[in-house]
Amino acid sequence: MNSLGRAGEEQARQYLQNKGYRIIAQNFGTKNGEIDLIATRGDLLVFVEVKQRASAAFGGPMAAVTKSKQHKISLTAAEFIKEKALKFDSIRFDVICITGGELTHVENAFFPPRMTV
Question: Cβ-count burial of 72 within 10 angstroms (0-12 exposed, 13-18 middle, 19+ buried)?
Fold first, then answer.
């Protein structure tokens, strides 16, 4: 990961912590992919993809979270839940977009196909 990506993840981490989330994992990876941040808030488990771009050209950061990327995140999330034997009332997939230093938190950014864990 380059320094811009690391800086973006740190900015996202601080943002989530300031909003009351507890970060329980960062850069969790499997053969299927990687999840940038995994956080909890109460009975909510949140998988967060962080995308940073210098500008909104070419669709901006959200455009980089393609259906294929969403599928990989979903598979990796299922593996995380199974590996950690976690039970939560709600699971959510968010994207934090950082464009030119400005952060936008997209809650429920996508809904994966039914997950089996």
Answer: middle
